[in-house]
Design goal:
This protein is of the alpha+beta class and 127 residues long. It has one domain: RutC-like (60s Ribosomal Protein L30, Chain: A), CATH 3.30.1330.40. Strands 1, 2, 3, 4, 5, 6 and 7 form a 7-stranded mixed β-sheet that branches. A hairpin with a 2-residue loop joins strand 2 and strand 3. It is globular, with a radius of gyration of 14 Å. The relative contact order is 0.24. The mean pLDDT is 97. It comes from Sulfitobacter undariae. InterPro entries: RutC-like_sf, YjgF/YER057c/UK114. This is Enamine deaminase RidA (YjgF/YER057c/UK114 family).
Length: 127
């Protein structure tokens, strides 16, 4: 397995990798709306954009992009956040002929109160 930690995104919070590549599979850890400079935007839309751009950077470490994603798993802290998250996700995959599978769950919170959304991906090298 190969650890994937792009220098263009904030470092992991602890003893884990942002992504792992093993064989044909690439998985990402859940990405939060944390900018590389350590700031966290106030809106779900802006946080989700960061989540997806972080995933894009992790996949790019292996020469992959969103067309390789099998599934996005996402978590938001309120039903009110679902529509804004989904707009961002849909924009990120709008140009794909085959859209990834997607799961969206409502959770009570994350490690820091200001985080509103978290997104993870599973990708297949051969599509």
């Amino acid at each position: 397995m190969k650890s994937l930690n792009p220098e263009t995104i904030a470092a992991p919070f602890g003893g884990y990798s942002h992504g792992l590549a093993g064989g044909e599979i690439v998985v990402t850890s859940g990405q939060l709306g944390l900018s590389a400079d350590g700031t966290v935007p106030n809106t779900v839309k802006e946080q989700a954009e960061i989540c997806f751009e972080n995933i894009r950077a992790i996949l790019a470490c292996e020469g992959l992009d969103f067309s390789h994603v099998l599934r996005f798993n996402a978590y938001v802290t309120s039903r009110e956040h679902m529509a804004d998250y989904m707009k961002v996700r849909d924009a990120m995959v709008a140009d794909l002929d085959v859209k990834p599978a997607s799961t969206l769950m409502i959770v009570s919170g994350f490690t820091r109160e200001e985080f509103l959304v978290e997104v993870e991906a599973t990708a297949l090298r051969s599509t």
